[in-house]
């Protein structure tokens, strides 16, 4: 994302995802508290989260800072476990029931993404560089998860994103007003951004969690593979990743949150302090990327994309006082289009608050 002084975006992609364990069944240990059952229309607990991804010093710390490609994203999210979600997950059209008592959650969110070329000082169109664009999306998602065996859990994620691409997202104003606020030059080429168009996406994702179980000191190692797919006017791609995480008093979820993959709200957090280190690797096979292929109907700038994109993601997450989760991570991608120069990477901060009504 952009230099903190250079640009800031707001982003949301909401998802229908699945995560959870049977009541009273810990991830692989009785150290995880039994999940509360919903007591109201909201259900308990409620998780509120904010995620920021950017390529500035504020997000990448001491690493190289840039203002190019995927330069800023922000997501706000709220999820809870209403009674009706427990029935709704039974209608998910793929996969078998997850254990005797799968847990379910429902969430809503909003996100805003900003993309720019490498040369942000040029006013003329840049046919061989990443087109200027913004994406504002509103989402709803359903999650389910269950404990299959003592050391194996499974989760499903189903997500619908509806929004707009183009000048109506306010990406130009947000980026340039942020630059002015911090005394940096404005970005010159926004007149060449993609045209306004309606955008919709559907995401399906499945995850498995293999666990060693906690030792006497609460430490645990987990391996979390996943597969998924996205179809719509924004992205059409297949995904496959795997996460390895190790830490103390791990939360009952399926790995760290990202803007494109919000954490699971079906499980619980430990009552004690917890933390974990993680590393995630994988890739995606891309048939369509609106931000590289250009507008669906109007003529627009576009570049020739790579069909396969690899990714490495690593970081640390801490759970404090049972209600607060804070995470930091770095993401590195291989080149997304054939005329791309420079390594595409960004940092991310996440914060989640768990409360009960």
Number of strands: 12
- CATH top level assignment: Mainly Beta
Strand order of the largest sheet: 1-2-3-4-5-6-7-8-9-10-11-12
Beta-strand percentage range: 35-45%
Question: Which radius of gyration do the C-alpha atoms yield?
Answer: 20 Å
Query: Which architecture does the CATH hierarchy give at level 2?
Result: Beta Barrel
The largest sheet is: 12 strands, antiparallel, barrel
> The CATH topology, please?
Lipocalin
Whole-number tally of structural domains: 1
Provide the succession of SSEs. EHEHEEEHEEEEHEEE
Roughly how many Å apart are the termini?
35 Å
Number of helical regions: 4
Q: What class would the helix/strand composition place it in? A: mainly beta
Q: Which residue ranges are poorly predicted, with pLDDT under 50 across at least 5 consecutive positions? A: 1-41
What's the CATH H-level superfamily name? Outer membrane protein
Described by the principal axes of the CA atoms, the overall outline is: globular
Q: Indicate the mean pLDDT.
A: 85
> Roughly how much helix do the residues carry, as a percent range?
under 10%
């Amino acid at each position: 994302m952009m230099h903190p002084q250079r640009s800031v975006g707001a982003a949301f992609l909401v998802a229908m995802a699945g995560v959870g364990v049977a009541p009273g069944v810990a991830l692989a240990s009785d150290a995880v508290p039994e999940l509360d059952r919903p007591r109201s229309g909201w259900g308990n607990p409620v998780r509120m989260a904010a995620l920021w991804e950017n390529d500035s010093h504020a997000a990448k710390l001491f690493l190289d800072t840039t203002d190019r490609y995927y330069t800023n994203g922000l997501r706000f999210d709220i999820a809870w476990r209403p009674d009706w979600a427990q029935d709704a997950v039974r209608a998910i059209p793929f996969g078998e029931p997850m254990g005797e008592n799968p847990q379910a959650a429902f969430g809503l969110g909003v996100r805003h993404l900003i993309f720019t070329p490498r040369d942000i000082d040029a006013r003329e169109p840049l046919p061989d560089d990443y087109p200027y664009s913004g994406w504002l999306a509103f989402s709803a998602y359903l999650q389910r998860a269950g404990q299959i065996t003592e050391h194996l859990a499974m989760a499903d994620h189903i997500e619908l994103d509806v929004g707009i691409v183009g000048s109506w997202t306010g990406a130009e104003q947000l980026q340039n007003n942020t630059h002015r606020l911090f005394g940096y030059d404005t970005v010159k080429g926004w007149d060449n951004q993609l045209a306004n168009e309606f955008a919709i996406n559907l995401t399906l994702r499945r995850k498995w969690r293999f666990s060693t179980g906690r030792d006497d000191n609460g430490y645990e190692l987990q391996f979390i593979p996943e597969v998924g797919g996205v179809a719509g006017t924004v992205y059409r791609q297949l995904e496959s990743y795997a996460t390895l995480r190790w830490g103390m008093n791990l939360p009952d979820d399926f790995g760290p949150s990202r803007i494109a993959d919000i954490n699971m709200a079906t499980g619980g957090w430990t009552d004690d302090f917890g933390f974990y280190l993680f590393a995630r690797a994988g890739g995606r096979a891309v048939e369509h990327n609106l931000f590289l292929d250009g507008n669906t109907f109007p003529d627009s700038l576009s570049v020739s994309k790579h069909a396969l994109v690899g990714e490495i993601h690593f970081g640390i997450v801490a759970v404090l006082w049972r209600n607060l989760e804070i995470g930091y991570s770095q993401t590195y991608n291989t080149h997304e289009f054939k005329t791309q120069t420079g390594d595409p990477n960004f940092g991310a901060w996440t914060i989640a608050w768990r409360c009960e009504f």
